[in-house]
């Protein structure tokens, strides 16, 4: 279905956020911003991706440290996520020529910036953790 808004409304810049957050006007966000937002959400929305980024921000540098900070992730999936985050410029990978060779990972400035944006989501998740909530909490 075609967007009924005139072209100048679809391409309008993103308006500043309203104070308080609840009354923000999302109707004026243009289509290109929506596509950019969708790509960003897909980056962090992959299974374990945000957890890997969070572990890097919490100081994980070696593979074994990531495993310790992310219970339940498999070696294969952790390797895949680290490669993916590296290819997106969110994590740097450094090979240290020692015996045995050490591979170190650390967040890039871009990755740290993404995690700064996601920090309110971390706070929201703590406040709204469905696994810890009970029916009494909702009354």
From TrEMBL:
GO MF terms listed in the record are: DNA binding
Keywords from the UniProt entry: DNA-binding, Transcription, Transcription regulation
Q: Keyword Transcription, does the record have it? A: yes
SUPFAM superfamilies, per database record: Winged helix' DNA-binding domain (SSF46785)
List the signal peptide residues: none
Task: Report the transmembrane regions from the record.
Answer: none
Compositionally biased spans, kind Basic and acidic residues: 1-11
Q: Which Pfam families does the record associate with it?
A: HxlR
Is Transcription a UniProt keyword of this protein?
Answer: yes
Q: Which residue range or ranges hold the HTH hxlR-type domain?
A: 34-133
Q: Which Gene3D superfamilies match?
A: Winged helix-like DNA-binding domain superfamily/Winged helix DNA-binding domain
Q: Where is this region: Disordered?
A: 1-25
Q: What name appears for this protein in its UniProt entry?
A: DNA-binding transcriptional regulator, HxlR family
Native species of this protein? Nocardiopsis flavescens
Give the source lineage, highest ranks first: Bacteria, Bacillati, Actinomycetota, Actinomycetes, Streptosporangiales
């Amino acid at each position: 279905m075609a967007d009924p808004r005139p072209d100048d409304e679809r391409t309008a810049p993103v308006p500043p956020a309203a104070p308080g957050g609840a009354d923000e006007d999302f109707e004026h966000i243009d289509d290109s911003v929506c596509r950019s937002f969708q790509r960003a959400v897909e980056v962090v929305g992959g299974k374990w991706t945000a957890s890997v980024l969070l572990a890097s921000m919490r100081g994980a540098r070696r593979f074994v440290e990531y495993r310790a900070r992310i219970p339940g992730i498999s070696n294969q999936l952790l390797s895949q996520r680290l490669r993916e985050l590296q290819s997106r410029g969110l994590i740097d990978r450094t090979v240290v020529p020692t015996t045995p060779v050490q591979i170190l990972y650390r967040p890039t400035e871009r990755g740290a910036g993404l995690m700064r944006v996601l920090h309110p989501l971390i706070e929201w998740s703590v406040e709204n953790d469905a696994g810890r909530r009970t029916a009494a909490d909702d009354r």
